[in-house]
Design a protein that fits this description.
Layout lengths: L10 H13 L4 H12 L25 H19 L25
Helix pairs in contact: 1-2
Length: 108
């Protein structure tokens, strides 16, 4: 396997690349490896990494009516399940402090 060293990168470029790699859930090394492989035409280009200058958050999720209905049904099911829980927290019991040592010198 070949290796690649990139020198003289501006600090800003390295920081931005670190952020882009993290947004894709990869280390900088793994993200660069994937970009080089894709640029060489050895792997299909993922839509989220075709333009690394675009922040990862800017890709809108696909919101089809079916997807919205499915999400809504899941949320309603969770709410329904949550209403069926009959749980009360135990009342708090104040307990006296034990083995408490106070030395005013510690606060000088």
């Amino acid at each position: 396997m070949a290796s690649l060293t990139v020198r003289n990168l501006p600090d800003e470029a390295k920081l931005r690349f670190r952020q882009v790699a993290a947004a894709h859930g990869r280390s900088m090394e793994e993200h660069l490896r994937q970009l080089v492989i894709e640029a060489a035409g050895m792997a299909p280009v993922a839509s989220a990494v075709t333009d690394a200058s675009v922040p990862f958050q800017s890709f809108p999720p696909e919101r089809t009516p079916e997807a919205r209905a499915e999400s809504r049904a899941r949320i309603e099911r969770l709410i329904e399940l949550g209403r069926g829980i009959d749980w009360e927290p135990e009342p708090r019991k104040p307990e006296p402090l034990t083995n408490f040592e106070f030395d005013p010198k510690d606060f000088e």
